[in-house]
Design a protein that fits this description.
19 helices, Growth Hormone, Chain: A, about 0% strand, globular, mainly alpha
C-alpha cells in the first residue's frame, strides 16, 4: 500500500519520504542510547542528564519558529538542506563531548538546527497534497520515520555490542550526510508563489490568536509531554530499576516502530471515518493507559505489552494530527503555522524530558511516575470535546461533509 501511494505521489513527496527515512535512522541510532551514555559513560547524574535533554528539546523551540519563518521567506528546499547539513556536523560533535557543559552545548546546537527540518517537511506535504489525502500522506511520512526507527535502534544495539555507544555518533553523522546529498540532488522547491506578505515575528504571535489552532497545539503539547517518557525516562528505568540491558531498549523501539510501519495506514483509513476530536481524545486516553500500566510491568514481556498499548494510542492520535494542523494553516502562512505547532510540541517534549528524569531522581518510589503521567494524559483528554465544538462538524469530520468528488491523489 505504501509503495502504491508513492508511485501516485508528486516527486517532492517521494524524495521527502525517502530522505526522512534516512534522517530518522540516524535519530533512532542515537537517541535510545543517549541517556544511558550520559549517565553511565560520562557519569552525569540523572537530574543533569534531564537538564541536557530538556535543553536539547527547548533549544528546538526557537529553531521551530525561525525555521517556520524561513520556510515562508526563502523556501522549503533551502531550509531542508540547511537543517540536514548542520545536523550532520552537530551529531559528529557529540563524539568530543566529555562532561555536562560540553554535552549540553552540543545538544542545544543539534536540536536548534534539527528543528528547522520539521516545518519545512510538513509544509512540503501541505504544498503538494490536497486536503482530503493529507491524513494518508502524513501517515506515510510517519511510516518512513519509523522504518528508520526500526533499523536505527537495531543497528545501534549491534554497534554498541561490537564497539561502544560513542561510535554511534560517527555513524549518525555519515547517515545524515547521505540524506543531505539526496535532498541536494533530487528535492524540488514547492513553495507557492510569493504573495508579497512580510514574514515577521508579529505574524508568529498572531497565530496564538487563532483559538482553535492554539487549542490543538496546546493539547498536542500535553500528549508529547507524556509520550516523551518512552525516549527519556524509560531507558534509564529499564536499565536501573528492571535490570535490563541496552539491547532490550532497542527491541522495544523496534517493536513500536514495526507496529507503526505495518498498521499506520490501516489505522488512518479507519480513523478518518470518525470525528477528529473523538479520534484525538481516544488516542490520548489509550496512550495514557499504556503509560500507567508500566507501573505494573515486572519483566520484558509485560513491558512490551505496555508499549503495544501506548503505540496503539499513538497510531490513533498521529493518524489525524498532521492533517488537522495542515488544514488549519493558511497557504501564505503555512510555514509559520507549522513552526508554531512544532514549537508547542517541542515545548511539551522538553518539559516532559526534564520532568520524567527529575521524577526518577527524587521520587522515593520511582515507579509511581508512570501513574502520574498516565493520569495527566487521561484527565486532560476531555479538552477535545471543547475543541470539537470550536471547529464545528464540517471541519471535525471533513470526510463525511466532503462533496467535491475529487479523486484521491495517493490512491485508495
Amino acid at each position: 500500500m505504501v509503495l502504491e501511494n508513492l508511485r501516485a505521489a508528486p516527486r517532492a513527496f517521494k524524495v521527502l519520504i525517502t530522505s526522512a527515512l534516512i534522517e530518522n535512522m540516524a535519530f533512532g541510532l542515537i537517541i535510545p542510547f543517549l541517556t544511558i551514555y550520559m549517565v553511565r559513560d560520562i557519569e552525569i547524574s540523572e537530574s543533569l542528564a534531564g537538564v541536557v535533554l530538556a535543553g536539547y528539546t527547548l533549544s528546538g523551540i526557537p529553531g521551530m519558529i525561525f525555521g517556520g519563518m524561513l520556510v515562508d521567506k526563502i523556501g522549503r528546499r533551502a531550509v531542508l538542506l540547511t537543517s540536514l547539513g548542520l545536523m550532520s556536523l552537530t551529531i559528529f560533535l557529540y563524539f568530543f563531548a566529555f562532561d555536562f557543559v560540553t554535552f549540553l552545548l552540543v545538544a542545544m546546537a543539534d536540536s536548534f538546527v534539527g528543528s528547522l527540518y520539521m516545518p519545512a517537511a510538513n509544509a512540503v506535504i501541505a504544498d503538494v497534497i490536497p486536503s482530503r489525502d493529507r491524513p494518508k500522506a502524513y501517515s506515510t511520512l510517519r511510516i518512513a520515520w519509523n522504518v528508520g526507527l526500526i533499523f536505527g535502534p537495531a543497528a545501534g544495539a549491534a554497534i554498541v555490542v561490537a564497539y561502544s555507544i560513542k561510535v554511534l555518533f560517527l555513524f549518525g553523522a555519515v547517515i545524515l550526510l547521505g540524506a543531505f546529498f539526496m535532498n541536494l540532488v533530487f528535492i524540488p522547491e514547492t513553495k507557492p508563489k510569493d504573495t508579497g506578505e512580510a514574514v515577521t515575528f508579529g505574524k508568529v504571535v498572531a497565530v496564538a490568536r487563532d483559538r482553535p489552532f492554539l487549542m490543538i497545539c496546546s493539547m498536542s503539547a500535553v500528549l508529547f509531554l507524556c509520550m516523551t517518557q518512552f525516549m527519556s525516562a524509560l531507558p534509564i528505568y529499564m536499565v536501573a530499576d528492571m535490570d535490563k540491558d541496552e539491547s532490550s531498549v532497542g527491541l522495544l523501539w523496534t517493536l513500536s516502530g514495526l507496529m507503526i510501519v505495518f498498521l499506520q495506514l490501516w489505522v488512518t483509513s479507519q480513523m478518518v471515518k470518525f470525528r477528529r476530536s473523538a479520534v484525538l481524545m481516544s488516542g490520548q486516553i489509550v496512550m495514557g493507559i499504556g503509560i500507567a500500566l508500566i507501573y505494573l510491568a515486572t519483566d520484558l514481556l509485560t513491558l512490551s505489552a505496555c508499549v503495544i498499548v501506548m503505540t496503539i494510542g499513538e497510531l490513533m492520535y498521529m493518524s489525524i494530527l498532521g492533517a488537522i494542523v495542515a488544514d488549519m494553516a493558511p497557504e501564505e502562512r503555512r510555514g509559520i503555522y507549522m513552526g508554531f505547532s512544532g514549537f508547542m510540541q517541542t515545548l511539551g517534549w522538553g518539559v516532559g524530558m526534564f520532568l520524567g528524569l527529575w521524577m526518577l531522581d527524587v521520587l522515593p518510589q520511582r515507579d509511581t511516575m508512570w501513574l502520574i503521567f498516565g493520569t495527566i494524559a487521561i484527565a486532560t483528554s476531555i479538552a477535545y470535546l471543547t475543541f470539537g465544538r470550536m471547529i464545528g462538524p464540517v471541519k471535525d469530520q471533513p470526510g463525511k461533509h466532503d462533496a467535491t468528488g475529487m479523486e484521491p491523489l495517493l490512491g485508495d
